[in-house]
Design the sequence.
């Protein structure tokens, strides 16, 4: 069984993340969506809400599991018997950054392969940071306008959970 880990903070889960997961399902038998805990990163949404966002979007898919973890991603992969790490690539900056992480991971565990999946053109502009920036200004935007601004970035389930 080909098992892949898709690690991230998913703060929040975006249409870009969903697109990469759906592409990964065509390549792997099982995907573990791994919500990483990074003490240096301040999350907007608590872990329980981020887990719920993912569950709502993939509740009917038996080939996806959701887990949280601390520590190195390659160590998590080894514990989960995953042979692959999925990384989404939106542009050359993403590629350069992710390639250096992939090289480091390979040095730590050469049995785990990083697979780069390109973003579709439709979602290449999406980042959780943009969504958070909009949400930080939500007090200045009425609810209907806020939903309209966030719709290009988030699934209906995530949008309904956030607003």
Sequence:
């Amino acid at each position: 069984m080909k098992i892949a880990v898709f690690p991230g903070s998913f703060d929040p889960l975006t249409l870009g993340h969903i697109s990469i997961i759906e592409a990964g399902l065509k390549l792997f038998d099982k995907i573990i969506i791994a919500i990483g805990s990074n003490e240096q990163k301040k999350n907007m949404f608590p872990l329980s809400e981020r887990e719920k966002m993912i569950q709502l979007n993939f509740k009917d898919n038996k080939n996806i599991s959701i887990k949280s973890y601390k520590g190195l991603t390659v160590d998590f992969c080894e514990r989960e018997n995953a042979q692959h790490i999925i990384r989404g690539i939106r542009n050359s900056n993403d590629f350069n950054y992710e390639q250096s992480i992939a090289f480091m991971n390979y040095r730590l565990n050469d049995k785990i392969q990083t697979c780069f999946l390109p973003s579709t053109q439709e979602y290449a502009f999406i980042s959780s940071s943009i969504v958070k920036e909009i949400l930080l200004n939500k007090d200045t935007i009425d609810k209907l306008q806020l939903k309209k601004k966030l719709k290009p970035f988030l699934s209906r389930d995530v949008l309904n959970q956030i607003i």
About this structure: The chain has a mean pLDDT of 96. The chain has seven helices and five strands. The domain at 3-162 is CATH 3.40.50.620 (Rossmann fold). The longest helix spans residues 92-108.
